[in-house]
Design goal:
This protein is mainly α and 389 residues long. It is built from 15 helices and no strands. The protein is globular and about 60 Å long.
């Protein structure tokens, strides 16, 4: 029941991550800025989102999930309402970063860390299911928002989302007031920390590098697919459809990765997902027809959806449970910074070159950085097992 409520909460609150992507062309046109400047609100959202993952993560380690989540829901709603009233790109960017991004954070890293305390035997599936809420949001909101915008514009759409989030998220958060159980050493069903030949700080840093690299690569299609379709003449609706397909496929990938992580381990699952993401990025370069872009977006979603939740599972497998909120928050902060920097860098590369081909190549290069870090992590995990034996 808790997992189901958490998934619904994440799906609703995930509007904070994806609404800005859908309205990007409309905001750019209204404020009269270039593509790089129009990408700044998304970058600001991700910065606030990243900071919130650490701050709210630390808070749930100390006081439980529901109080920080309640404050975050209020901030998210206020952010949408204030953003709908802004008169400049700067005001819109500040509302996105300080309120929408920070408010959305409670439904990602902190939520994943909280749900990990409630499962032992099927922790991989539980974590990836909770993490799927952000992708379900990406599958639902990019379809809903254009319909609202078509009749009333992006400002009305933002105000409506703010009211809806406040009315639904507060009751859902209040249903999660029960404190998370703590694992006791030697208790039935408890999972001991697995051995690895890395200190906690070194492991944390390696995961930060891997997370930043994978999301620098991931950001290009996720952030710019709508604008990319606009440039190709397919329109906002087609781009939003592709984003929805990409993220719906990501849900399938996340759940499948959870089952795979429970069977072969999160590190090996992470390696498989990272390699497939790199391959799928190559497909965007030669295939830019409407039908082929739908297919490539589906392939990309099926490839990369399970990557980010694997970092949270690795943290829970190799680090103490009492540090889960903060540790998961730090790693996911790195992934979010990767999305923010990657999204902004892709816009800058587009303005510089006049196309997205170089931006896709930049994403592939960062994906190779991620693969290097994951291979090192796998080697260190294997050495830890050998040392214990």
């Amino acid at each position: 029941m808790r997992l189901g409520i958490s998934l619904l909460l994440a799906t609703i609150g995930g509007a904070g991550m994806w609404a800005v992507v859908v309205v990007l062309p409309a905001v750019q046109a209204e404020f009269g800025v270039d593509r790089a400047a129009a990408s700044m609100p998304y970058a600001a959202t991700m910065v606030g989102f990243a900071a919130g993952n650490v701050l709210v993560g630390r808070a749930i380690d100390r006081m439980g999930y529901w109080i920080p989540a309640l404050a975050s829901a209020a901030a998210l709603s206020a952010g949408f309402l204030l953003a709908s009233l802004t008169t400049s790109i700067l005001g819109f960017t500040l509302a996105q970063g300080l309120l929408v991004g920070l408010g959305t954070s409670a439904i990602f890293g902190p939520l994943i860390a909280d749900i990990s305390h409630w499962f032992n035997r099927r922790r991989g599936v539980a974590v990836t299911a909770a993490a799927s809420g952000s992708y379900l949001a990406g599958a639902v909101w990019p379809i809903v928002i254009p319909y609202i915008m078509r009749g009333e514009g992006w400002r009305f759409a933002y105000a409506a989302i703010g009211v809806f989030c406040l009315a639904t998220m507060v009751p859902l958060v209040l249903m999660l007031r029960r404190g998370a159980p703590r694992e006791a050493a030697g208790s039935s069903g408890s999972r001991p920390v697995q051995p690895i030949s890395l200190s906690p700080s070194a492991l944390q840093m390696l995961l930060v590098v891997a997370g930043f690299g994978c999301c620098m690569a991931m950001s290009m299609p996720q952030v710019h697919i709508v604008a990319y379709c606009m440039d190709l003449g397919y329109g906002v609706a087609r781009g939003a459809d592709m984003l929805s397909i990409m993220l719906a496929a990501g849900v399938v990938s996340r759940i499948g990765s959870g089952f795979l992580a429970d069977r072969i381990g999160a590190v090996k699952t992470l390696l498989i997902g990272s390699a497939l993401q790199c391959v799928s990025l190559f497909f965007y370069i030669p295939f830019d027809g409407l039908a082929s872009l739908y297919v490539v977006s589906l392939i990309f979603g099926l490839s990369q959806g399970g990557i980010v939740p694997c970092y949270a599972i690795i943290v829970r497998d190799y680090m103490p449970a009492k540090e889960a909120g903060q540790r998961v928050g730090i790693v996911l902060m790195a992934t979010i910074f990767g999305m923010a920097v990657g999204g902004c860098m892709s816009g800058w590369i587009y303005d510089l070159t006049g196309s997205y081909a170089a931006a896709f190549l930049n994403g592939i290069a960062w994906n190779l950085v991620n693969l290097t870090a994951v291979l090192l992590l796998m080697w260190k995990a294997r050495r830890g097992v050998e040392a214990l034996a």
